[in-house]
Amino acid sequence: MMKGFSALIVIALVNGLIHCQVFFLLYGAVGLTQATSNLAAFCVAAAFSFYVNALFIFGPQQSWSGYLLLNCTMAAVSYGIGSIGDALNLPGWETVALYFLLNLTMGYSFFRFKLLRGRQRV
């Protein structure tokens, strides 16, 4: 079973791939705004991450409140970045790249300094 940093990296990369695919499907093929596409893509990718993190990362006594707070924050960030992309008429790939970098930074920081603090070094 994967633990620690390697699990976080694999989950983050797959999460990013799912997010990109859903974003470009909704934005490019369906014609939704970047804000709506980015939020919907986040929701799909977050559902995947929640399930996989529950299997590989979280312990049985883990508090879910912090993880839920992170997801609510990241949902707002995803919509905000999409709104900025719409307002500035940015290409979709720039919106997704900016969100992906923020998501990686904030997600890793959360896992490293909050969720897994004291349990193991990630």
Structure description:
The chain is an all-alpha fold and 122 residues long. The protein has one domain. It starts with a helix and ends in a 7-residue tail after the last helix. It contains 4 helices and no strands. The chain has helices at residues 4-30, 34-56, 65-87, 92-115. The mean pLDDT is 85. It is a multi-pass membrane protein. Residues 11-93 form the GtrA/DPMS transmembrane domain. It is found in: Membrane. It holds the Pfam family GtrA_DPMS_TM.
Annotation keywords:
122 residues; mainly alpha; 0% strand; GtrA_DPMS_TM; GtrA/DPMS transmembrane domain-containing protein; membrane; transmembrane
Short description:
It is a multi-pass membrane protein. Helices cover 80% and strands 0% of the residues.
The percent range for strand residues is: under 5%
Radius of gyration: 15 Å
Question: How would you spell out the order of helices and strands?
Answer: HHHH
Given as residue ranges, the uncertain stretches (5+ residues, pLDDT < 50) are none
Task: Tell me, briefly, the overall form.
Answer: elongated
Number of helices, counting only DSSP H or I runs of 4 residues or more? 4
Quick one: biggest sheet? none
Transmembrane segments: 39-59, 66-84, 96-113
Keywords: Membrane, Transmembrane, Transmembrane helix
Protein name: GtrA/DPMS transmembrane domain-containing protein
Subcellular location: Membrane
